[in-house]
Amino acid sequence: xxxxxxxxxxxxxxxxxxxxxxxxxxxxxxxxxxxxxxxxxxxxxxxxxxxxxxxxxxxxxxxxxxxxxxxxxxxxxxxxxxxxxxxxxxxxxxxxxxxxxxxxxxxxxxxxxxxxxxxxxxxxxxxxxxxxxxxxxxxxxxxxxxxxxxxxxxxxxxxxxxxxxxxxxxxxxxxxxxxxxxxxxxxxxxxxxxxxxxxxxxxxxxxxxxxxxxxxxxxxxxxxxxxxxxxxxxxxxxxxxxxxxxxxxxxxxxxxxxxxxxxxxxxxxxxxxxxxxxxxxxxxxxxxxxxxxxxxxxxxxxxxxxxxxxxxxxxxxxxxxxxxxxxxxxxxxxxxxxxxxxxxxxxxxx
Length: 350
Hints:
The chain has helices at 17-61, 67-107, 121-126, 210-213, 239-245, 248-261, 278-286, 322-331, 334-342, and strands spanning 111-113, 137-149, 152-163, 166-168, 174-176, 179-190, 199-203, 219-220, 232-236, 290-295, 298-304. With 350 residues, the chain is of the alpha+beta class. It starts with 16 loop residues before the first helix and ends in an 8-residue tail after the last helix. 24% of the residues are buried.
């Protein structure tokens, strides 16, 4: 499904989309648009209340009244409409997703949940597909999608992990700074080819600590003739089984999937020889976007995307726009793209 500017060519839209749009999505967008406009008016009134509060603070401050008292009262008065704006914006986001993302997922045969509250995030931490930090972090999951593609069941969600540590600034004072440790997609699928034991392919920038391997049967695995594998740390409880899983064909498909989400800049052709340098190869390993685990007849993948997906567009624009749905259809292609890239349904794996 290719994009054409802001829309998708009608010939490339899924069969039955027109009917589904007119009978299900369109009426839902009409209903949600009325609610969105009411929320926008409410937000405008709340912004006006804050503006009036600021004007009142300036007026009282010019009347020789205690500025500290004016400030405290002004902040207290502004807090309520400010909190109302936050709640209204969150309501508008939920409204847009309910009207856009959910019925579009249903059209594709997927189940959608905006919260992803029961997604097994702990498995990705336990398998080191996500880094477990000792310091304070905030983890947010959303947009869980479940379904089946070409006979292969899958489950995915979006996750964002932020570091909330306090740091020393240049003045040796404590300051709060938030860093995004991970933003991307977590993906679980039943693996249609039998395997034994456990195998993990981890980002070279985040190797499994030796203490994690102590007392286990996990061994380091080296793959011959795979430049891509040099950017990964590969461990398995059954190295022979791991090599039968991680065939050159599979590693090539995984490399293509990694390149699809990679943040490594493309070099001009005239300096393409730099790509062969050890420094550039190290950069690629540090920006690798994919980590994988094979365990319990499942394959788990963490994909660093660096962006928020499945949003359906801005909540400050009209929902009654078919282009927004068509863009969302293109964005939801990430689901079959992952499975198609790995060719999991193939009877001759590898």
